[in-house]
Design a protein that fits this description.
The protein is about 0% helix and about 45% strand. By secondary structure, it is mostly beta strands.
């Protein structure tokens, strides 16, 4: 049974930073497994959107195509710790428009590369709330 549990959300002022964590059980990030992992967010009254993605080959991702939303490029960094079986999202220079529930997701289909397609992720966490005040 694969389970994802997010943590690290909270309330910060604009310009502040947070680091979200997603603990993974039932699926190890090490070895020869292929997967795509992602962070999504959903603001009140809006659809859920992909924020950042990472695949099995990267420790952290700085390439522009790892970030599905232009507004987070240069401010957010997605990374993973295979030994800790944990996915991270480091968020700097937070803005009020970053306020949302943040979710991590896992796509473990064979041969998958990182992608931003919400409907293709099989496993989801319950979310952690991020609130940024101006």
């Amino acid at each position: 049974q694969v389970q994802l549990v997010e943590s690290g959300g909270g309330s910060v002022q604009a310009g502040g930073s947070l680091r979200l964590s997603c603990g993974i059980s039932g699926f190890g990030l090490g070895g020869f497994r292929i997967y795509s992992m992602a962070w999504f967010r959903q603001a009140p009254g809006k659809e859920r959107e992909a924020v950042a993605v990472i695949d099995a080959y990267a420790i952290d991702a700085y390439e522009s195509d790892a970030y599905c939303t232009d507004s987070v490029k240069g401010r957010f960094t997605i990374s993973q710790d295979r030994a800790q079986n944990t996915l991270y999202l480091t968020m700097n220079n937070l803005k009020p428009e970053d306020t949302a529930m943040y979710f991590c997701a896992l796509d473990r289909r064979m041969g998958v590369a990182r992608h931003c397609s919400e409907g293709l992720y099989q496993y989801w966490g319950q979310g952690t709330q991020v609130t940024v005040s101006s």
